[in-house]
Amino acid sequence: MAEAQGYHMTPEQFRLYGRVVVDWIADYYQRVQSLPVLSRVQPGEVRAALPTEPPLHGEPFEAILADVERVILPGLTHWQSPNFFAFFPANASGPAILGELLSAGLGVQGMLWATSPACTELETHVLDWLADMLGLPPHFKSSGTGGGVIQDTASSATLCALLAARERATGFASNETGCNGRLVAYASNQAHSSVEKAVRIAGLGRRNLRLIEVDERYAMRPEMLAAQIARDRQAGLVPCFVCATIGTTSSNAIDPLPAIGRICREEGLWLHVDAAMAGTAAICPEFRYLHDGLEYADSYCFNPHKWMFTNFDCDCFYVADRATLIRTLSVLPEYLRNKATESGAVIDYRDWQIPLGRRFRALKLWFVIRFYGVEGLRYHIRQHIAWAQEFARWVQEDPRFELVAPVPLNLVCFRHRAGDAFNEELLERLNRSGRLYLSHTKLDGRYVLRFCVGQTHTEAHHVRAAWQFIQETAEQLERERG
Ligand code: PLP
Fold this sequence. Notes:
Blueprint: H1 11-31, H2 45-48, H3 61-72, H4 94-106, H5 117-133, E1 147-151, H6 154-169, H7 174-177, E2 183-188, H8 193-201, E3 209-212, H9 222-234, E4 238-245, H10 257-267, E5 270-274, E6 299-302, H11 304-307, E7 315-319, H12 322-329, H13 339-343, H14 362-397, E8 401-403, E9 411-416, H15 420-432, E10 439-443, E11 446-452, H16 460-481
Parallel strand pairs: 2-3, 2-4, 4-5, 5-6
Antiparallel strand pairs: 1-7, 6-7, 8-9, 9-11, 10-11
Helix pairs in contact: 4-14, 5-14, 6-8, 6-12, 9-10, 14-16, 15-16
Protein backbone atom coordinates (compact mmCIF):
# COMPACT_ATOMS: atom_id res chain seq x y z
CA MET A 1 0.00 0.00 0.00
CA ALA A 2 1.36 3.43 -0.97
CA GLU A 3 2.38 5.40 2.10
CA ALA A 4 0.35 8.47 1.17
CA GLN A 5 -2.72 6.27 0.92
CA GLY A 6 -2.44 5.00 4.47
CA TYR A 7 -5.24 2.58 5.14
CA HIS A 8 -7.77 4.28 2.87
CA MET A 9 -9.50 2.57 -0.01
CA THR A 10 -7.83 3.55 -3.28
CA PRO A 11 -9.88 4.94 -6.16
CA GLU A 12 -9.12 1.73 -8.06
CA GLN A 13 -10.36 -0.41 -5.18
CA PHE A 14 -13.44 1.79 -4.89
CA ARG A 15 -14.18 1.35 -8.59
CA LEU A 16 -13.73 -2.40 -8.32
CA TYR A 17 -15.73 -3.00 -5.15
CA GLY A 18 -18.29 -0.39 -6.09
CA ARG A 19 -19.14 -2.49 -9.12
CA VAL A 20 -19.25 -5.61 -6.98
CA VAL A 21 -21.70 -3.96 -4.57
CA VAL A 22 -23.91 -2.63 -7.34
CA ASP A 23 -23.94 -6.11 -8.89
CA TRP A 24 -24.79 -7.59 -5.51
CA ILE A 25 -27.74 -5.23 -5.16
CA ALA A 26 -28.97 -5.98 -8.69
CA ASP A 27 -28.73 -9.72 -7.95
CA TYR A 28 -30.54 -9.16 -4.66
CA TYR A 29 -33.50 -7.63 -6.48
CA GLN A 30 -33.57 -10.59 -8.85
CA ARG A 31 -33.67 -13.16 -6.07
CA VAL A 32 -35.50 -11.30 -3.32
CA GLN A 33 -38.85 -12.89 -4.09
CA SER A 34 -37.40 -16.31 -3.40
CA LEU A 35 -36.28 -15.34 0.13
CA PRO A 36 -38.57 -15.67 3.17
CA VAL A 37 -40.16 -12.23 3.45
CA LEU A 38 -40.16 -12.12 7.24
CA SER A 39 -36.78 -12.84 8.79
CA ARG A 40 -36.65 -16.12 10.68
CA VAL A 41 -33.75 -15.37 13.00
CA GLN A 42 -34.21 -15.60 16.74
CA PRO A 43 -33.39 -12.68 19.06
CA GLY A 44 -29.60 -12.45 19.50
CA GLU A 45 -28.82 -14.72 16.54
CA VAL A 46 -27.31 -11.98 14.37
CA ARG A 47 -25.08 -10.73 17.17
CA ALA A 48 -23.99 -14.24 18.04
CA ALA A 49 -22.64 -14.59 14.49
CA LEU A 50 -20.48 -11.48 14.86
CA PRO A 51 -17.04 -11.41 16.50
CA THR A 52 -17.02 -9.89 19.98
CA GLU A 53 -13.98 -7.76 19.18
CA PRO A 54 -13.57 -5.38 16.24
CA PRO A 55 -10.77 -6.28 13.81
CA LEU A 56 -7.42 -4.80 14.75
CA HIS A 57 -6.27 -4.89 11.16
CA GLY A 58 -8.29 -4.09 8.07
CA GLU A 59 -9.96 -7.01 6.33
CA PRO A 60 -10.37 -7.78 2.62
CA PHE A 61 -13.51 -6.25 1.19
CA GLU A 62 -14.51 -9.69 -0.13
CA ALA A 63 -14.66 -10.97 3.46
CA ILE A 64 -16.91 -8.11 4.51
CA LEU A 65 -19.29 -8.70 1.63
CA ALA A 66 -19.31 -12.44 2.31
CA ASP A 67 -20.55 -11.69 5.82
CA VAL A 68 -23.34 -9.54 4.41
CA GLU A 69 -24.51 -12.68 2.65
CA ARG A 70 -23.85 -15.03 5.59
CA VAL A 71 -24.85 -12.96 8.63
CA ILE A 72 -26.92 -9.99 7.50
CA LEU A 73 -29.13 -11.40 4.78
CA PRO A 74 -30.84 -14.04 6.95
CA GLY A 75 -31.49 -11.33 9.54
CA LEU A 76 -33.43 -9.16 7.10
CA THR A 77 -37.12 -8.78 6.60
CA HIS A 78 -37.33 -8.07 2.92
CA TRP A 79 -39.18 -4.80 2.56
CA GLN A 80 -38.31 -4.80 -1.13
CA SER A 81 -39.87 -8.21 -1.75
CA PRO A 82 -42.84 -8.11 -4.13
CA ASN A 83 -44.59 -10.26 -1.51
CA PHE A 84 -44.30 -7.59 1.18
CA PHE A 85 -47.84 -6.44 2.00
CA ALA A 86 -47.37 -5.46 5.66
CA PHE A 87 -47.64 -2.05 7.40
CA PHE A 88 -47.24 0.61 4.75
CA PRO A 89 -44.53 0.00 2.15
CA ALA A 90 -41.08 1.57 2.23
CA ASN A 91 -40.47 1.10 -1.45
CA ALA A 92 -37.21 1.82 -3.23
CA SER A 93 -36.21 1.91 -6.89
CA GLY A 94 -33.09 1.88 -9.07
CA PRO A 95 -32.95 5.64 -9.62
CA ALA A 96 -33.50 6.33 -5.91
CA ILE A 97 -30.74 3.94 -4.86
CA LEU A 98 -28.34 5.46 -7.36
CA GLY A 99 -29.28 8.96 -6.23
CA GLU A 100 -28.58 7.89 -2.66
CA LEU A 101 -25.24 6.43 -3.71
CA LEU A 102 -24.31 9.68 -5.38
CA SER A 103 -25.37 11.61 -2.30
CA ALA A 104 -23.12 9.41 -0.17
CA GLY A 105 -20.34 9.79 -2.71
CA LEU A 106 -20.54 13.57 -2.70
CA GLY A 107 -20.80 13.53 1.07
CA VAL A 108 -21.99 17.11 1.39
CA GLN A 109 -23.65 18.46 4.49
CA GLY A 110 -26.25 21.03 3.51
CA MET A 111 -27.07 22.70 6.81
CA LEU A 112 -26.66 26.16 5.24
CA TRP A 113 -27.14 27.33 1.67
CA ALA A 114 -23.46 28.30 1.79
CA THR A 115 -22.30 24.81 2.77
CA SER A 116 -23.54 23.47 -0.57
CA PRO A 117 -25.82 25.72 -2.60
CA ALA A 118 -26.95 22.94 -4.96
CA CYS A 119 -28.10 20.84 -2.02
CA THR A 120 -30.48 23.59 -0.92
CA GLU A 121 -31.59 24.85 -4.31
CA LEU A 122 -32.30 21.42 -5.77
CA GLU A 123 -34.38 20.62 -2.69
CA THR A 124 -36.41 23.82 -2.98
CA HIS A 125 -36.94 23.21 -6.67
CA VAL A 126 -37.92 19.55 -6.42
CA LEU A 127 -40.32 20.30 -3.56
CA ASP A 128 -41.94 23.00 -5.69
CA TRP A 129 -42.29 20.43 -8.50
CA LEU A 130 -43.90 18.04 -6.06
CA ALA A 131 -46.29 20.71 -4.79
CA ASP A 132 -47.55 21.04 -8.37
CA MET A 133 -47.57 17.28 -8.90
CA LEU A 134 -49.79 16.85 -5.83
CA GLY A 135 -51.95 19.91 -6.55
CA LEU A 136 -51.02 21.57 -3.26
CA PRO A 137 -52.32 25.13 -2.70
CA PRO A 138 -49.90 27.73 -4.15
CA HIS A 139 -48.95 29.17 -0.76
CA PHE A 140 -47.08 25.93 -0.01
CA LYS A 141 -44.58 26.78 -2.75
CA SER A 142 -41.40 28.77 -2.26
CA SER A 143 -42.79 31.49 -4.55
CA GLY A 144 -45.62 31.99 -2.03
CA THR A 145 -45.39 32.57 1.70
CA GLY A 146 -44.39 29.00 2.46
CA GLY A 147 -42.26 26.25 1.00
CA GLY A 148 -41.18 22.67 1.33
CA VAL A 149 -38.31 20.90 3.03
CA ILE A 150 -37.21 17.28 3.22
CA GLN A 151 -37.36 15.81 6.72
CA ASP A 152 -36.20 12.37 7.71
CA THR A 153 -39.69 11.18 8.66
CA ALA A 154 -43.32 12.20 9.08
CA SER A 155 -42.71 12.07 12.83
CA SER A 156 -40.20 14.91 12.54
CA ALA A 157 -42.55 16.86 10.28
CA THR A 158 -45.35 16.59 12.83
CA LEU A 159 -43.03 17.68 15.62
CA CYS A 160 -41.83 20.72 13.64
CA ALA A 161 -45.45 21.64 12.83
CA LEU A 162 -46.45 21.34 16.47
CA LEU A 163 -43.51 23.44 17.66
CA ALA A 164 -44.43 26.19 15.18
CA ALA A 165 -48.08 25.97 16.29
CA ARG A 166 -47.00 26.23 19.92
CA GLU A 167 -44.97 29.35 19.22
CA ARG A 168 -47.70 30.95 17.13
CA ALA A 169 -50.23 30.33 19.90
CA THR A 170 -48.02 31.85 22.58
CA GLY A 171 -46.57 34.78 20.64
CA PHE A 172 -43.22 32.93 20.65
CA ALA A 173 -43.13 32.96 24.43
CA SER A 174 -42.82 29.16 24.84
CA ASN A 175 -39.39 29.28 23.25
CA GLU A 176 -38.38 31.83 25.88
CA THR A 177 -39.92 30.62 29.10
CA GLY A 178 -41.17 27.12 28.37
CA CYS A 179 -44.58 25.70 27.69
CA ASN A 180 -47.38 26.98 29.92
CA GLY A 181 -49.20 23.67 30.42
CA ARG A 182 -52.43 25.08 29.00
CA LEU A 183 -51.90 24.37 25.29
CA VAL A 184 -54.06 21.62 23.81
CA ALA A 185 -53.59 19.54 20.64
CA TYR A 186 -56.15 17.41 18.78
CA ALA A 187 -56.07 14.40 16.48
CA SER A 188 -58.45 11.55 15.79
CA ASN A 189 -58.16 8.40 17.86
CA GLN A 190 -56.83 6.78 14.65
CA ALA A 191 -53.95 9.25 14.23
CA HIS A 192 -50.42 7.89 14.15
CA SER A 193 -48.57 7.50 17.44
CA SER A 194 -46.05 10.10 16.24
CA VAL A 195 -48.59 12.78 17.16
CA GLU A 196 -48.52 11.71 20.79
CA LYS A 197 -44.75 11.54 20.68
CA ALA A 198 -44.60 15.09 19.29
CA VAL A 199 -46.96 16.34 22.00
CA ARG A 200 -44.71 14.85 24.66
CA ILE A 201 -41.50 16.19 23.14
CA ALA A 202 -42.94 19.66 22.52
CA GLY A 203 -43.80 19.89 26.19
CA LEU A 204 -47.58 20.08 25.83
CA GLY A 205 -47.95 16.93 27.86
CA ARG A 206 -49.76 13.77 26.83
CA ARG A 207 -52.83 14.73 28.83
CA ASN A 208 -53.22 17.79 26.65
CA LEU A 209 -53.69 15.68 23.54
CA ARG A 210 -57.36 15.05 22.79
CA LEU A 211 -58.09 11.98 20.71
CA ILE A 212 -61.31 12.77 18.90
CA GLU A 213 -63.88 10.09 18.11
CA VAL A 214 -64.24 8.76 14.58
CA ASP A 215 -67.23 7.80 12.44
CA GLU A 216 -68.02 4.40 10.94
CA ARG A 217 -65.34 5.03 8.30
CA TYR A 218 -62.73 5.67 11.02
CA ALA A 219 -62.51 9.35 10.03
CA MET A 220 -62.48 12.17 12.56
CA ARG A 221 -65.91 13.54 13.50
CA PRO A 222 -65.60 17.32 13.07
CA GLU A 223 -68.55 18.08 15.35
CA MET A 224 -66.77 16.18 18.13
CA LEU A 225 -63.66 18.22 17.47
CA ALA A 226 -65.61 21.49 17.69
CA ALA A 227 -67.32 20.38 20.91
CA GLN A 228 -64.02 19.39 22.52
CA ILE A 229 -62.39 22.69 21.57
CA ALA A 230 -65.32 24.53 23.15
CA ARG A 231 -65.03 22.48 26.36
CA ASP A 232 -61.31 23.15 26.55
CA ARG A 233 -61.76 26.88 26.06
CA GLN A 234 -64.37 26.90 28.79
CA ALA A 235 -61.88 25.20 31.08
CA GLY A 236 -59.40 28.03 30.46
CA LEU A 237 -57.15 26.00 28.18
CA VAL A 238 -55.61 27.16 24.89
CA PRO A 239 -56.36 24.94 21.87
CA CYS A 240 -53.51 25.37 19.38
CA PHE A 241 -53.02 22.44 17.02
CA VAL A 242 -55.02 19.87 15.05
CA CYS A 243 -53.47 16.99 13.15
CA ALA A 244 -55.76 15.60 10.46
CA THR A 245 -54.78 12.40 8.70
CA ILE A 246 -55.17 11.52 5.04
CA GLY A 247 -54.79 7.75 5.12
CA THR A 248 -54.60 6.56 8.72
CA THR A 249 -52.12 3.82 9.51
CA SER A 250 -54.69 1.30 10.68
CA SER A 251 -57.23 1.58 7.88
CA ASN A 252 -56.31 4.40 5.45
CA ALA A 253 -59.22 6.50 6.71
CA ILE A 254 -59.46 10.03 5.38
CA ASP A 255 -60.33 12.76 7.84
CA PRO A 256 -62.79 15.34 6.42
CA LEU A 257 -60.35 18.19 5.78
CA PRO A 258 -62.82 20.86 4.64
CA ALA A 259 -64.91 20.62 7.82
CA ILE A 260 -61.88 20.30 10.10
CA GLY A 261 -60.18 23.13 8.23
CA ARG A 262 -63.12 25.48 8.70
CA ILE A 263 -63.11 24.81 12.44
CA CYS A 264 -59.37 25.47 12.64
CA ARG A 265 -59.77 28.69 10.67
CA GLU A 266 -62.61 29.93 12.90
CA GLU A 267 -60.79 28.97 16.08
CA GLY A 268 -57.34 30.12 14.97
CA LEU A 269 -55.78 26.65 15.35
CA TRP A 270 -52.81 25.37 13.39
CA LEU A 271 -53.93 22.58 11.04
CA HIS A 272 -51.29 19.99 10.17
CA VAL A 273 -52.19 17.33 7.59
CA ASP A 274 -50.41 13.99 7.81
CA ALA A 275 -50.69 12.20 4.47
CA ALA A 276 -47.67 9.98 5.11
CA MET A 277 -48.52 7.23 2.66
CA ALA A 278 -51.75 8.22 0.94
CA GLY A 279 -50.52 11.64 -0.19
CA THR A 280 -48.63 10.03 -3.07
CA ALA A 281 -51.94 9.02 -4.68
CA ALA A 282 -52.73 12.69 -5.31
CA ILE A 283 -50.16 12.62 -8.10
CA CYS A 284 -53.02 11.05 -10.08
CA PRO A 285 -55.68 13.69 -10.84
CA GLU A 286 -58.49 11.23 -10.05
CA PHE A 287 -57.23 10.92 -6.44
CA ARG A 288 -56.57 14.60 -5.90
CA TYR A 289 -59.88 14.86 -4.04
CA LEU A 290 -57.86 13.52 -1.08
CA HIS A 291 -56.45 17.03 -0.75
CA ASP A 292 -59.79 18.85 -0.82
CA GLY A 293 -59.70 21.31 2.06
CA LEU A 294 -55.92 21.56 2.11
CA GLU A 295 -56.27 25.30 1.51
CA TYR A 296 -57.05 25.55 5.24
CA ALA A 297 -53.87 23.76 6.30
CA ASP A 298 -50.86 25.43 7.87
CA SER A 299 -48.65 22.45 7.16
CA TYR A 300 -48.71 19.20 5.23
CA CYS A 301 -46.47 16.18 4.88
CA PHE A 302 -46.20 13.00 2.88
CA ASN A 303 -43.49 10.36 2.59
CA PRO A 304 -42.02 9.55 -0.81
CA HIS A 305 -40.15 6.91 1.23
CA LYS A 306 -43.38 5.02 1.68
CA TRP A 307 -45.05 4.80 -1.71
CA MET A 308 -43.12 6.94 -4.20
CA PHE A 309 -40.22 4.62 -5.00
CA THR A 310 -37.75 6.74 -3.01
CA ASN A 311 -35.80 4.74 -0.49
CA PHE A 312 -36.03 5.59 3.20
CA ASP A 313 -35.64 8.30 4.47
CA CYS A 314 -37.51 11.06 2.71
CA ASP A 315 -40.50 12.97 4.07
CA CYS A 316 -41.67 16.11 2.27
CA PHE A 317 -42.91 18.74 4.71
CA TYR A 318 -44.65 21.92 3.56
CA VAL A 319 -45.64 25.01 5.49
CA ALA A 320 -47.95 27.81 4.40
CA ASP A 321 -46.00 30.42 6.38
CA ARG A 322 -42.26 29.73 6.44
CA ALA A 323 -41.55 32.78 8.63
CA THR A 324 -43.27 31.18 11.65
CA LEU A 325 -41.41 27.89 11.24
CA ILE A 326 -38.06 29.62 10.83
CA ARG A 327 -38.61 31.90 13.82
CA THR A 328 -39.53 28.83 15.87
CA LEU A 329 -36.46 26.80 15.00
CA SER A 330 -33.71 29.29 14.22
CA VAL A 331 -30.77 29.75 16.57
CA LEU A 332 -27.78 31.53 15.05
CA PRO A 333 -24.42 31.08 16.76
CA GLU A 334 -21.43 33.08 15.57
CA TYR A 335 -19.77 30.10 13.89
CA LEU A 336 -22.67 29.69 11.45
CA ARG A 337 -22.85 33.35 10.41
CA ASN A 338 -22.11 33.99 6.74
CA LYS A 339 -22.72 36.59 4.06
CA ALA A 340 -25.27 34.57 2.11
CA THR A 341 -27.46 34.11 5.20
CA GLU A 342 -27.18 37.78 6.08
CA SER A 343 -28.15 38.81 2.55
CA GLY A 344 -31.57 37.25 3.17
CA ALA A 345 -31.52 35.90 -0.38
CA VAL A 346 -31.07 32.22 0.50
CA ILE A 347 -32.79 29.42 2.39
CA ASP A 348 -30.88 27.80 5.24
CA TYR A 349 -32.73 24.55 5.78
CA ARG A 350 -31.17 24.04 9.22
CA ASP A 351 -33.89 26.48 10.37
CA TRP A 352 -36.65 24.22 9.03
CA GLN A 353 -35.79 21.06 11.00
CA ILE A 354 -34.64 19.73 14.38
CA PRO A 355 -31.03 18.74 13.61
CA LEU A 356 -28.42 21.12 12.31
CA GLY A 357 -26.83 18.84 9.72
CA ARG A 358 -28.59 17.45 6.71
CA ARG A 359 -27.94 15.04 3.88
CA PHE A 360 -28.42 15.64 0.17
CA ARG A 361 -31.72 13.76 0.03
CA ALA A 362 -33.13 15.82 -2.84
CA LEU A 363 -30.84 13.98 -5.26
CA LYS A 364 -32.69 10.69 -4.97
CA LEU A 365 -36.06 12.41 -5.25
CA TRP A 366 -34.88 14.29 -8.33
CA PHE A 367 -33.60 11.06 -9.87
CA VAL A 368 -36.92 9.30 -9.22
CA ILE A 369 -39.08 12.08 -10.66
CA ARG A 370 -36.87 12.46 -13.73
CA PHE A 371 -36.47 8.76 -14.38
CA TYR A 372 -40.15 7.80 -14.02
CA GLY A 373 -41.68 11.09 -15.10
CA VAL A 374 -45.01 12.11 -13.60
CA GLU A 375 -46.89 9.75 -15.92
CA GLY A 376 -44.63 6.85 -14.97
CA LEU A 377 -45.31 7.41 -11.29
CA ARG A 378 -49.05 7.65 -11.95
CA TYR A 379 -48.98 4.40 -13.89
CA HIS A 380 -47.56 2.42 -10.97
CA ILE A 381 -49.69 4.10 -8.29
CA ARG A 382 -52.81 3.34 -10.32
CA GLN A 383 -51.78 -0.29 -10.67
CA HIS A 384 -51.27 -0.68 -6.92
CA ILE A 385 -54.67 0.82 -6.23
CA ALA A 386 -56.38 -1.29 -8.88
CA TRP A 387 -54.86 -4.51 -7.53
CA ALA A 388 -55.86 -3.64 -3.96
CA GLN A 389 -59.40 -2.93 -5.16
CA GLU A 390 -59.44 -6.30 -6.89
CA PHE A 391 -58.20 -8.00 -3.73
CA ALA A 392 -61.01 -6.28 -1.82
CA ARG A 393 -63.54 -7.69 -4.32
CA TRP A 394 -62.17 -11.22 -3.82
CA VAL A 395 -62.56 -10.79 -0.06
CA GLN A 396 -66.17 -9.72 -0.53
CA GLU A 397 -66.89 -12.65 -2.83
CA ASP A 398 -65.66 -15.19 -0.29
CA PRO A 399 -68.40 -15.67 2.34
CA ARG A 400 -65.85 -16.76 4.96
CA PHE A 401 -64.18 -13.35 4.93
CA GLU A 402 -65.35 -9.78 5.40
CA LEU A 403 -64.02 -6.31 4.67
CA VAL A 404 -63.67 -4.32 7.87
CA ALA A 405 -63.14 -0.80 6.52
CA PRO A 406 -63.67 1.09 3.27
CA VAL A 407 -60.84 0.67 0.75
CA PRO A 408 -60.22 4.12 -0.71
CA LEU A 409 -56.75 3.30 -2.06
CA ASN A 410 -54.22 0.50 -1.70
CA LEU A 411 -54.88 -0.89 1.79
CA VAL A 412 -57.38 -3.67 2.43
CA CYS A 413 -58.49 -4.34 6.01
CA PHE A 414 -60.24 -7.70 6.23
CA ARG A 415 -60.79 -10.66 8.49
CA HIS A 416 -62.03 -14.20 8.57
CA ARG A 417 -65.45 -14.37 10.19
CA ALA A 418 -64.27 -17.04 12.66
CA GLY A 419 -63.08 -14.49 15.23
CA ASP A 420 -59.95 -12.93 16.68
CA ALA A 421 -58.08 -16.07 17.69
CA PHE A 422 -58.59 -17.58 14.24
CA ASN A 423 -57.32 -14.46 12.50
CA GLU A 424 -54.30 -14.25 14.78
CA GLU A 425 -53.38 -17.84 14.02
CA LEU A 426 -54.02 -17.29 10.32
CA LEU A 427 -51.65 -14.32 10.24
CA GLU A 428 -49.02 -16.21 12.20
CA ARG A 429 -49.11 -19.10 9.72
CA LEU A 430 -49.09 -16.89 6.66
CA ASN A 431 -46.07 -14.96 7.85
CA ARG A 432 -44.26 -18.01 9.15
CA SER A 433 -44.47 -19.54 5.67
CA GLY A 434 -42.06 -16.90 4.37
CA ARG A 435 -44.16 -16.64 1.21
CA LEU A 436 -45.62 -13.24 2.04
CA TYR A 437 -45.84 -10.75 4.84
CA LEU A 438 -49.02 -9.12 6.14
CA SER A 439 -49.57 -7.18 9.34
CA HIS A 440 -52.55 -6.57 11.59
CA THR A 441 -54.37 -3.90 13.51
CA LYS A 442 -57.42 -3.60 15.72
CA LEU A 443 -60.54 -1.77 14.58
CA ASP A 444 -63.43 -1.41 17.01
CA GLY A 445 -61.59 -3.85 19.23
CA ARG A 446 -61.53 -6.55 16.55
CA TYR A 447 -58.38 -8.19 15.23
CA VAL A 448 -57.98 -7.24 11.57
CA LEU A 449 -55.55 -8.28 8.83
CA ARG A 450 -54.01 -5.51 6.72
CA PHE A 451 -52.98 -6.10 3.12
CA CYS A 452 -51.23 -3.12 1.56
CA VAL A 453 -50.16 -3.10 -2.11
CA GLY A 454 -47.31 -0.69 -2.71
CA GLN A 455 -44.09 -2.57 -3.29
CA THR A 456 -42.11 -1.46 -6.34
CA HIS A 457 -41.86 -4.95 -7.83
CA THR A 458 -45.27 -6.30 -6.90
CA GLU A 459 -47.19 -7.52 -9.94
CA ALA A 460 -50.79 -8.64 -10.36
CA HIS A 461 -49.70 -12.29 -10.07
CA HIS A 462 -48.15 -11.69 -6.64
CA VAL A 463 -51.45 -10.28 -5.39
CA ARG A 464 -53.40 -13.19 -6.90
CA ALA A 465 -51.01 -15.74 -5.41
CA ALA A 466 -51.23 -14.03 -2.02
CA TRP A 467 -55.04 -14.24 -1.98
CA GLN A 468 -54.96 -17.87 -3.07
CA PHE A 469 -52.48 -18.70 -0.32
CA ILE A 470 -54.56 -16.83 2.27
CA GLN A 471 -57.63 -18.84 1.21
CA GLU A 472 -55.74 -22.15 1.31
CA THR A 473 -54.21 -21.44 4.70
CA ALA A 474 -57.62 -20.45 6.07
CA GLU A 475 -59.14 -23.68 4.71
CA GLN A 476 -56.42 -25.73 6.35
CA LEU A 477 -56.98 -23.95 9.64
CA GLU A 478 -60.75 -24.40 9.39
CA ARG A 479 -60.25 -28.14 8.87
CA GLU A 480 -57.91 -28.41 11.86
CA ARG A 481 -60.37 -26.57 14.05
CA GLY A 482 -63.25 -28.73 12.85
N1 PLP B 1 -48.24 9.05 9.88
C1 PLP B 1 -48.84 8.01 9.33
C2 PLP B 1 -50.26 8.13 8.85
C3 PLP B 1 -48.15 6.79 9.18
O1 PLP B 1 -48.76 5.75 8.66
C4 PLP B 1 -46.82 6.70 9.63
C5 PLP B 1 -46.08 5.44 9.51
O2 PLP B 1 -46.53 4.46 9.01
C6 PLP B 1 -46.25 7.83 10.21
C7 PLP B 1 -46.98 8.99 10.33
C8 PLP B 1 -44.85 7.80 10.74
O3 PLP B 1 -43.99 7.75 9.67
P1 PLP B 1 -42.44 8.04 9.84
O4 PLP B 1 -41.78 6.73 10.01
O5 PLP B 1 -42.07 8.72 8.55
O6 PLP B 1 -42.26 8.94 11.01
